[in-house]
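Hello forum,

I keep getting stuck at the same step: I have a sequence, I want structure tokens, and every attempt I make locally crashes halfway through. Rather than fight my setup again tonight, could one of you with a working pipeline run this one for me? It's a single chain of 118 residues.
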Amino acid sequence: MSPVRRGLTLVELLVVITILTLVTAAAVPLIAPATQQRKIREAARILSDVFAGAQARAVAAGRPVGVWLQRIGDRPRANRVQANTAIDLFYCQVPPPYTGDTTNAVCLPNPNQNSQSQ
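Reply #2:
Ran it on my machine without issues. Output:
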């Protein structure tokens, strides 16, 4: 009787590793475009959510609310690609109209005052 073989030889292991390496190397170029498309979709979703949030804030406040896009190009040493790239988003809201220094302030016109200079 021949002894029972319980394992792989070094050559068999190297062949399996080589096959796995080739399959992985062939799959990477197929996965990379999908990753880029996923990043674009995620950025578009985030931007849409920010605009929807600004709209909801405007309705709740009764005043205009906008979205401020902070460009990378405003920072020193930005190259041409970065000049039109924005990564920071902020809400900006129109402040309420000025009604005086106190809550009881009123403005009354003086009908007796002459508006022309003499």
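The beta strands are 65-71, 86-93. If your local run keeps crashing, start a new thread with the error log.
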